[in-house]
């Protein structure tokens, strides 16, 4: 008898463009995970495809990522819609939504960068935090986590954000679900049902938020989740978005 360690979930029903509001994560959801953050390969015509989707949804669409907003804007040149970056700390298209960077940001980044150099890790500075990637040293996760936890004792205003082969520190007040709750007041979302697609731990609060508003979440890839549906990978996401799942 097979032993299932995670819920078996069906693919989502087709998107209802007249009724749904769509929120998409970036890394691992639209774009395959790569060895380094700057080594991703964008699916052909991604920005134009997102722009078309946004139009079809009457603007009820946003990209919601942990990445720096500036990077997302650069990768998606040609898509002019709503973007949430920095795990909810930054926004394009929503005035007054940006979280001020925590006061201790520069000191914190200097400690993380020095640790990365000493331990041969990849350091990723962010506008509101920073990440330590240990993909090149896959067994080193516990040490990275312990170091990140130790920083929490010394610098206030941050929360730990686990990511795929990485640990990040982000502003404690920023999260994807809180950012979505702010977006949700925009007139374009009125009367719609939120649908959130994501692949990682940072996406689970947003998945729960979508369900609490009467919508649903879709987990991309394997792993435990509160989502109602699952798609295997970014290729399956793109196919579903184009009506082919
Ligand atoms: O919220 P997301 O759009 O999913 O962003 C989460 C983090 O994604 C990036 O890191 C991850 O993807 C990299 C590229 O595939 C990969 O090399 C890394 O191991 C993953 O953790 C990004 O670098 C982070 O800033 C995002 O927070």
UniProtKB/TrEMBL annotation:
Provide the cofactor list for this protein: Mg(2+)
Q: What is its EC number?
A: 3.1.3.12
**Can you state which reaction this protein catalyses?**
alpha,alpha-trehalose 6-phosphate + H2O = alpha,alpha-trehalose + phosphate
Top enzyme class: hydrolase
GO molecular-function terms, A-Z: metal ion binding; trehalose-phosphatase activity
Pathway, per UniProt?
Answer: Glycan biosynthesis; trehalose biosynthesis
Has keyword Hydrolase?
A: yes
Sorted keywords for this record are:
Hydrolase, Magnesium, Metal-binding
Report the record's Gene Ontology biological process terms.
trehalose biosynthetic process
Q: Which InterPro entries match?
A: HAD-like_sf, HAD-SF_hydro_IIB, HAD_sf, OTSB-like, Trehalose_PPase
Q: Is the keyword Hydrolase in the record? A: yes
Stored PANTHER family: TREHALOSE 6-PHOSPHATE PHOSPHATASE
Member of which family? Answer: Belongs to the trehalose phosphatase family.
- What's this chain's function? Removes the phosphate from trehalose 6-phosphate to produce free trehalose.
Put simply, this protein is called Trehalose 6-phosphate phosphatase
Whose protein is this, by species? Rhodobacter xanthinilyticus
- Which taxonomic lineage is given here? Bacteria, Pseudomonadati, Pseudomonadota, Alphaproteobacteria, Rhodobacterales
